[in-house]
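Example record used in the benchmark description.
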Amino acid sequence: MRYALTVRVGEHDASMTVVGLDARLGAVGVALGQFDDVRVELEDIRWASYRALSATLVFHDVHVNPPATIVASPVEFTCKVAASDVPALQRWKWLPLNVFLVDDAVHVRVHRWLPPKVFPIPELPRGIKLTGLEHDGDEFVLTGTAPVIRERLSVAQLAELLSRLVSSQSSTRSDTTSGISNCGT
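Model output (structure tokens):
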């Protein structure tokens, strides 16, 4: 399963490719609008001037509230960003960098005796908070969480979402009991 998706995130549209969808579904849960956890794997993410190679989002306790509002609480994510896509670090790309997260800022130390260069994290939409940052030479791996995500959908969008979830379930299982569907790369 691969399909392009564009969603509104804050003031900007974000485009991405969905490459995997895992959902725990059961006949009773679908009828009640409860999906437990939903895992989404994304690639080639573009939002405003930002790019990411890939991301994995885990939506916990997903359910549908009337009128057509998807709610998940909490949401956890991991995102990989190419070091070459971080322009502020390009002048130091030949140095070994010590990169770490302190409160709402990324600290980059190019030498242990020099003070770190501090880059404030832009305000993230929907209560998203970064909780971790790792640097692996060519990539940065960011982790984070949002306490709750609420997204109002049109009836057509909700029907399409339910159809994708059910079709991903039926493509990997022949019964309607609970289970993990594993579609993707």
